[in-house]
Design goal:
This protein has 430 residues and is α+β, with helices and mostly antiparallel strands. It has two domains: 1-27, no CATH class; 32-429, Glycosyltransferase (Alpha/alpha barrel). Helix content is 50%, strand content 9%. The strands form seven sheets. The protein has a four-stranded antiparallel sheet with strand order 1-2-4-3. The protein has a three-stranded antiparallel sheet with strand order 9-10-13. It has a two-stranded antiparallel sheet with strand order 5-6. Helix 12 (356-368) packs antiparallel against helix 13. It starts with a helix and ends with a helix. This is Glycosyl hydrolase 94 catalytic domain-containing protein. Residues 75-318 form the Glycosyl hydrolase 94 catalytic domain.
Amino acid sequence: MNRIVILFFVVLAACTGKDTGNQELANKILADETLQKVDSMARQLMKNGFYAGSGYQMVWSRDLNTFIETSCEEYDNAVIRENLLMFFNFQMENGELLDGYVPREAFTWGDPHTYESATAPGHIGFKNTVETDQETSLVQAIYKYIVKTGDKSILNETVAGQTVKERINRAIDYLYTERYSEKYGLITGATTFDWGDVQVEGGEVVDVDELTHWCVDVYDNAMLAIALNNLTELTEDSNEKKRFESLHSEIVKNTRKYLWDTDKSKFIPHLYIDGSPFPEDFDENEIHYHGGTAVAIEAGILNKDEIATVLAQMVKNVELSGAPSIGLTLYPTYPSEVLAENISAPYEYQNGGDWTWFGGRMIQQLIEYGFVEEAYQQVQPMFERVVINDGFYEWYKIDGTSAGSGDFKGSAGVLAKSIEMFYDWANSNK
């Protein structure tokens, strides 16, 4: 191609406001049959019901939060609304919310820690108390439902004598009264693997007990930052808006102040309130938390340069570990000798398993911040395994073997949203 022709295309691109590199990528995305297939599969799965997955016949707030947008496009919105409202029947007196609920006849797993509600006698509630993302997950899910459907009236719906808006405010108050560190100005939780709900000390495993070591981490606080931002947008009360804005600002500021390691350009896994569960010679800060980092990006805690840096770290971690994708939960993994005997070995489950459920959220944020080419490259293994396995598995082992629920809606939801974001970008740049 001679210089005159090259100059012609440069001038043409400038006149049309189009970047030829972006155009090529856009056209590639729009013609990609794998994206079309995965999107179709995800949407078909959303039509099959509202449970979290084939292995989980329950409705979970943290799962629902990641597939509700696609569900709103494929499922009866009235049923979705009812499912959201059901959570508030199980709200505790102190404002605490549960993980979820299940129809009474489907409660078969013998959990000794269950909850019942006089206003929802047909259901049983449950909660993994080591985590601190239940309240924030439900707030985010309601926000997404409102954005998708325009049904803001849900906030004024009365459940067990109080409006949803009042109950949401009580849920936020609970986090600041029952799960808050004055020292750090951040909310607390038990010591788990990144975003997970399995405590490293064993014991009750998913429930707080005498073995629990309380700490602050990036995932829980990033989730709160997102929820507070959502509430700022939803409220029409100026005083309430100022309150949520102030709380949001403090959480973001303190997350960066205490949890972002500037020298290593990564988040510190945990800051302990009263002692660590690990031996003194174990350097936990060598571990990178991929999932919590992705959610922190969604919360606006990192800038674009920092996002590029943590992406490079994730890609390097995948290379070093041999994991299938940047859905790799964390790296390096926690060695078995620092964990309780019955807790996940390295590269099992939340201790270094590969979870599309969170990897897909990183893909979304890469698109959001303009790293579209990188997102398209990194998402390929996630798309490919859906097609190969003919389903959306919960997680994958280090060798790529599928594990957990075979129809995990969380995985389907984050990929479907990623595909929608790819298409929106591509249609604007073709």
